[in-house]
Amino acid sequence: MLRNLKLVVVLMVFSLTFPLFAQGQSDTAPQKEIELRWASIWVGNDSKAPAVEALVADYNAKNAGKIKVVVEPQPDYNAYEQKVRTSLAAGQAPADIFTIKFNPTTATFYGSKLLMDFSTTMDSDWKATFDAGSLQQSTVDGMLKSLPMETAILPLWYNMDAFNKAGVTTLPKTLDEMFADFDKVKAIGMAPTSQMTGDTNAWTSMIWFSHFAVAFGGTDVWSKPFTDPAFVQAATLIKKMITEYSTADAVGLGAGGSGGHFLAGRTAVFSNGPWYAGRADLAATPFFSSIKIAGLPAAGPTTDFMISRLQANICAASSKDKAKEAAILDFMKYLTSPASITKIAETSGAMFAIKTDYVPKQELQKQFYTAANSAKTTAFDLEAAMGSEVTLEFAQQLGALALGKITPEEFCSLVDRKIER
Amino acid sequence: MQAVGTRNSRVWAGRILFLLPVSLFFIFFFIYPFLFTLATSFTNWRGIGSMKFNGLANYKKLLLDPTFRKALINNIIWALSQGFIQVPLACLIAMILVRKPKGWRFLRTAYYLPNVISTVALAMVWVAIYNVNGPLNAILGVFGMEPKNWLGNPDTALFSVIFQTVIYIGYFMIILLASAMNISRSLYEAAEIDGASTIQQEIHITLPMLRGPLVTTMTLAMAYGMRHFESTFLMTGGGPAYATTTMGIDLYLKMDALRYSEASTAGVFLILMGTVVITVLRKLLGKSDPMSEMAQ
Question: Which of A261, A278, A346, B43 could form a cystine bridge with A47, CB 3.0-4.6 A?
Fold first, then answer.
């Protein structure tokens, strides 16, 4: 009996400790092929997924026996962001290659030694392929621990079929014209805009607010205190947009609901990035071909600007293994090459921080490129400029503002207290 | 004598062997994380980089934070509503079903069913029900009531989120029903002979006999209320204006903003508050709890 017991104990200890030794063996075993794990968000229904999959297959075929890139699909972006955060906090890189949404909160990742610093490994030829402004925005204290990959402009989307039904045939040029047009849209029983206060960033309303704030406060508005009159004016206008020119469920509504209203033709104006243009459900709408993309009509001293952001920066895990580091750099160069980016842009309509000669053929995508190129200047949106904590406070207090529980001045003060100075 | 000693050591080896797996899990998945959380709550750790000891700064900041105070109050409301609304309702249904009315088996399954359905799916259903254009407002409209944005208004949001948990009473009902079924029928027969009505039988026999399971279910319900997160996060994200936020949501959002040490402090508070609430509850209700009598 005691012998059996000892045997059971030995087996249990062995089964518990065996995986530790088994894991260790892979490091010491001779490596024929370097395997790179890429935790990719461009999978599943993402508009970039088919092109990215083809590029990885092509790279693996060309490097057969030497380097193999294995895509670890991350279809849920929020869960993926959590994974990146917790992995880095636990002292492990989430994968050999992974993406982040670059903003002041995620810039904290630059303090981690787990991330490769491209400022020391990037040659001038490779550097020249990137948009200089985006590279500079991605540099923190001289470190370049993420490469700007996907960028975005966040314009306003007009369903011109709805506008035509309301007797409006041209886009508004001033704020007064815009509100007059919205009144006409309301008169035909349609909500003029898709607004929302839900989720952690009140996404579509946050875009509108960013447009207003930059229009009144200039492209450097985000460096001013949130109690600045420009923000108070922007808060007053966003309240008006939610209470008078949106759907009745805007307070508390999430991004899915806000986008859903536009797709279902319940609202006439929407706000989002170029990735939304590649959606199949948008292409299936009867008004798809009538959509017009534009910036905010002249509202304040700053005009002809566009709200933009670094949508996805790509990171790599630092490695003491020189061969692996070289493999990572080789794949990163391949992925960010103008040829690869052109292929992804062709099928997705997304915009990138890598310079290419690509000119979109699809009408809606073409409008995005035109809007980006015709803007005199660009400015970040609230989330990209201030980080997740300030944006969360903005979203939480936006509902109270819309319901008249707080004044625009109080709203701005509440958001201001979350800004780290 | 030696044989007795060998037998004793065998018995102990067996006990240790049985306790070892669960003890290891408890140490790795509770004791270690708790100690780590406690240690980081006294630092300025942001998840990345080194930790610097900063004393009680996080605790002071947290207590002065109006959002956290709101979360704390909401958690207490949650705990009380779970313990003193959900459990009594579950008890009432258990008392009805134990008398095996027609269709009681179906009702037992129906009441328990929401507990096996995904919280995410049910939360989405409730978001649709509470929508301005949803079925709840449509029904209320029949009675001439104006449609309300139930989850979008800070005055109604917390009540709306708490109300939907009523569908989960089946979990507590099953525990109470199982206990009620074990009460000897002879007690009821004797009461009937003495002329006691059904209500008198429930008050003077069922409820006293269920005191132990009631304390247990109330403890479970209030513990759930103190650590509540899922459905509120899914339905409102803690908004609007933090009207529905809880300590769990506050902790999550602090981690989201890479404020790990502050999140740890919120975690320590969460554990402390949970312990206080449960201890007080058991002190108040546990005097006649058969479980506590057995422990003495």
Answer: A278
